Amino acid sequence: MTPVALPAGQPDPAAAQRPDGQHRMLAMIGLDAARGAGASYADVRVVSRRTQAISTRGERVTGLQDSESLGFGIRVLVNGAWGFAASRVLEIDELRRVARQAVAQAQANRQAQRRPVELAPVRAFPDNAWVSPIREDPFAVSLDEKVALLLDANVTALTVPGVRFAVSTMRFVCQQTTFASTEGSVITQTAYRSYPQMNVTAVSSDAGDFQSRASGEIAPMGLGFEYVRAANLRQRAIAWGEQAVEKLSAKPVEPDVYDVILHPSNLFLTIHESIGHATELDRALGYEANYAGTTFLAPPARVLNTFRYGPEIMNVQADRTQRGALATVGWDDEGVAADSWPIVKDGVFVDYQTTREQAGLISEYTGITRSHGCAFAQSWDAVPFQRMPNVSLLPGEEGYSLDDIIAATEKGIVIAGRGSYSIDQQRYNFQFGGQVFLEVRDGALVGMLRDVAYQGRTPEFWNSLDMLGGAESYELGGTFGDAKGQPSQANAVSHGCPPTRFRNVRVINTGRTV
Amino acid sequence: MADTILTADAARELAERILDRSGSAEAEVRLRSTDDGHTRFAANQITTTGDATDLTASLSVRVEGREASVEFNTFDDETYVAAGERARAMAELLPEDPELQELLEPQTYDETDAWFDGTLGLDPTARASAAQVVIDRAVRGGLVASGFLQRRVSAYGVANSVGLFAYHRATLASLTTTVRTTAGDGSGWAGETGNDWARMPATLDVAERAIEKAARSAGAEAIEPGAYTVVLEPTAVGNLVQLMRFAMDERAAEEGRSFFARRGGGTRMGERIAAPGIALVSDPTSPMLRTQPFTAEGQRLGRTEWISDGVVTTLSRSRAWADRVREAPVPVGNGLLLDAGGEGTVADLVPGVERGLLVTRFWYIRGVDPRSLLYTGLTRDGVFLIENGEVSRPVKNLRFNESVIRLLNSVEAAGAPARVVASESGGLGTAVAVPPLVVRDFQFTALSDAV
Q: Which of A255, A262, A267, B25 sits between 20 and 30 A of B319, alpha carbons compared?
């Protein structure tokens, strides 16, 4: 489980483009039209989103698509009610029409508005820009180089005896947003994301069993093609192939209680599900009750500064400034500057994720009147709402390595990679799998296990944490398509953590004969 | 709103122009025109709403057995020429694809009437009024309502350089609502979806179903996890059965990486995998489905019986795989109908159960083991104990680890199929029509404190 060494260095700050003149002009026309139609507040986002997806299987390229989507969305407040409308047609008359449409919609919504929306104060940023810290633009790298990299990795994996299939993909996103608001901000941001992936499958000789090994430790990142190079799929392909084959004959796990040692490539998703989503303020307020759910961390007055999430060594930080992380930005989608703040401090829950609409609702308990900058919309046609920032478990001060934790464990399982994952709608009961399961006996690794999943209840699980890896063992994981909202929107978010031990966790065997 | 959607004539004209300007002898263009509107409510008020129109084109160009695609949503000759050049340049850099199939020749399609004017009128004012109906009823009952009302008007067209043209337009609507007690100790859900908003059940009926569930589910008590007979409401059945849509693939089975692989080689074609009487069907013309009668590339979709009388009768077969095994291709469409030959509703099934659980719907369903089609997930928004043929009391939510195949094998009784909101997000996903089912020995493995 060698981590990807993140390429060092910062890009040239001049790479951040100033607000595009044409988009800025159109945004201003949209703001004027919204104000003229009666909006007390309006913001316009003009978005150009480019994506590229390459997929391969064995020696074939099974898919190659470049995509560009351009459009704008206008959000307005009229007497405390929201309206939002969007169109792909970037023409002056259309900006005006859509602004009026958004205002008319807000007026229609007033009949079902019991508490007018009040926005937390925000500083104006009249001419600002930000760009992801990439060193190599993935869209400028030649396609044949990308394809060769993937096919080479597949062919390498297929040299492992027993491996039958190897598939690999690359996905890239470049999203440029010009944001303007009636409060005086005009901000242009260019966010890049890169995600190389691979999956190797071994099939038993009698076709009665198959096992796969996915590239779980290769996280998606808010970086450029330099990250794809550093991930080096080809170099890892042999080990992934060997592990897929080894899984076929691995020992089925004995259901029992174990100490589980979660590698960052697995723990990141547990953090995402049981801390990231649980600390979203919109859930606590019931805004997501119809789909994503509510949270056990409610009401805010009862849990803020009192709820013990875990032991004193547990510290969790929300952060939209972390270099290379997926949810890192300069400003959020309502013009709030990127923030970094504690969510769990010395084991105690101290703050939620907030937007401008929400911040004032809990300021009485947090003492914080500004938004933490968690507004996000997936593209021009989507309504901004509260989404997860990067939420990370900070490393321990003792400086333990993964080996130190294994050496201190009598009966345990090391779990690495992202597997099956499921959690209830209030973020209590979860069940997570993984890619690789290694049995620990008396301080040493003794072999591979299969059919492993761990179950838990969030408060008890986190309070069973007793060993944290040190800063040297900290890694970033992440997810490209976190779904929330209706209609569902996909957010990309990273979670950092060290390898961590949890005591007495229930492990089940997921093997079945049907 | 209807005037923002591409008509068949406009789609044909636009597709031909893009193909012409692409400068490629072998090309295909797919057009998607959408006009979406939604209204969300929570905490007894409207929270967010949105309306958006879009038109996208995806141009695929082929160069000597290689293919690449470029998607765009800006429409002028300059864009078409540039897209053609870019796709061609991309394709030229690829290795030849031995599985690339010839462009489809023109086909004939079944008529599917999925366009209803009753859905066109679901504008922001109508949506706000519907939300208000749910909210008012919840407030009167001292409860807290949240929900989602969505309307999609869309058209899809595909054309290629050998003369194929296919066009389909549809309206769709869905309303889902979750009503909770103010103390947070009860939660009930109800939802409806269909092509014609005017013929969907009245908003007040949907609200009252969720409200009744919320009130009845308050004060749920824990029960021991384990194997239970369950009465699954149609939504719960749809949550699970839709997982079969892409599972029944012949290539994956032949290659040994699927439940449908037979030990020793070959597939489970012809084997009994479900209880007698169970049929799993895709049929674009079914009034309960009304789905697009062709695939994205324009391949005709007819009625397909995947499972008949509990036996696997068809596995899907891509064009490339069909070419390899010298059989006819079997495409997968966007609809699924499960019919177990039953009549009636949940209310007709409960009296036949001596002891069991009534499940409203499932949540966070994820695959655990593809070898057995084992999934995990949780119950949500209303689970009730059935004793002596009557719903007796609410119980806490439970996590299951269960195989969809074992479920289909363990069906004891069924009602009549109905269209359901099968997607957990409440959105307009796959069209799914399923009956309520009584299933024995459904495996629950843990309790959840979530309400």
A: B25
* pLDDT tens digit sequence for A156-184: 999 999 999 999 999 999 999 999 999 99
SS3 state at A447:
strand
Q: With beta carbons under 8 A apart, name residues in chain B contacting A66.
A: 68-71, 86-87, 90
**How confident is the model over A41-69, as a mean pLDDT?**
97
Task: Report d(CA A450, CA A249) in Å as an integer.
Answer: 9
Burial B269-301 (b: 16+ CB within 10 A, else e): eeeebbbeebbbbbbbbbebbbbbbbbebbbeb
Residue count of chain A: 514
In this structure, what DSSP letter does residue B427 have? S
User: Cα separation of B378 and B390, whole Å?
Assistant: 23
Do A381 and B447 make contact, defined as CB atoms within 8 angstroms?
Answer: no
- A21, burial (CB in 10 Å: exposed 0-12, middle 13-18, buried 19+): exposed
Average pLDDT over residues B214-226: 96
Does residue B402 contact residue B378 with C-beta atoms inside 8 Å?
Answer: no
Phi/psi at A76 (5° precision): -135, 155
Distance CA B305, CA B313 (A): 7
Handedness of CA B92, B96, B102, B103 (dihedral sign): negative
Task: Take residue A501 and report the two structure tokens written for it.
Answer: 């031990």
Q: Which of residues 298 through 317 in chain A touch B, CB cutoff 8 A? A: 298
Contact A493, A268 (CB under 8 A): no
User: CA dihedral in degrees (B84, B89, B90, B94; nearest 10)?
Assistant: 130
Mean pLDDT of A12-25: 69
Q: CB contact, 8 Å: A5 with chain B?
A: no
With a CB cutoff of 8 Å and minimum separation 6, the contacts of B222 are B395, B396, B447
As beta bridge partners, residue A67 has A51, B71
* CB-CB contact of B390 with A256 (8 Å): no
Q: Chain B contact for A383, CB < 8 A?
A: yes
Specify the pLDDT at position B4. 84
Judged against a pLDDT cut of 60, whether residue B424 lies above it is answered with yes
In this structure, the dihedral spanned by the alpha carbons of residues A53, A55, A59 and A61, taken in order and rounded to 10 degrees, is -60
Of the candidates A88, A422, A488, the beta carbon closest to that of B73 is on A88
pLDDT digits (tens, 9 = 90+) for B318-359: 999 999 999 999 999 999 999 999 999 999 999 999 999 999
In degrees to the nearest 10, what's the CA dihedral of A217, A218, A219, A225?
Answer: 160
Cα–Cα dist B431/B284, whole Å: 10
Q: Which residue of A has its CA nearest to B35?
A: A87
Across the interface, whether the CB atoms of B374 and A510 are under 8 A apart is answered yes
**Residue A364: partners with Cβ closer than 8 Å, 6 or more residues away:** none
pLDDT value, residue A13: 45
Binary contact (B40, A486; C-beta < 8 A): yes
pLDDT at res. A10: 54
Q: Percent of chain A, pLDDT > 70?
A: 97
d(CA B175, CA B177): 7
Helix (H, G, I), strand (E, B) or coil at B62: strand
Q: Which bin fits B2, alpha (ψ -120 to 50), beta or left (φ > 0)?
A: alpha
Per-chain mean pLDDT for chain A: 95
What is the nearest CA distance from A70 to chain B, expressed in angstroms? Answer: 7
